[in-house]
């Protein structure tokens, strides 16, 4: 099902995301600015922060947090994918014993429900665009 105004929806979604992240960044930068200047700079020898410096610190913290989160999601997805593939292999083991020529698990040996589960898992981990590119490449190889 193709959405009628998909470009407009993507632009609105991106603008909403940017404004919400920007608003949160300004909020946290303001809190950092006030707390640093009120609690730390007044009571110690440290220099006070300007608002732009606090925005920079919050931005760096966001980039570090996002990169750590992204790397942990990739590892989690890889572990989950490996466990899922092993479970599918164990479920389809009786199908492979009847055909001794193929020692590797095959998608054609899976039931329709198992194929849909595998497709959803690949979409979740790899993204829908990557799945479509893989399906096109497999179709080209088989043709």
Could you give a short description of this structure?
It is built from five helices and no strands.
- CA-based gyration radius: 25 Å
Class by SSE composition: mainly alpha
Number of helices: 5
Order of helices and strands: HHHHH
Distance between the termini: 27 Å
The profile of the biggest β sheet is: none
Portion of residues within helices: over 70%
Mean pLDDT: 77
Defining traits:
78% helix
Could you please describe the fold and organization of this structure?
With 143 residues, the chain is an all-alpha fold. The chain is built from five helices and no strands. Helix 1 packs across helix 2, helix 2 packs antiparallel against helix 4 and helix 4 crosses helix 5. It starts with 5 loop residues before the first helix and ends with a helix. The mean pLDDT is 77.
Blueprint (SSEs and pairs):
Blueprint: H1 6-40, H2 51-91, H3 93-98, H4 112-126, H5 128-142
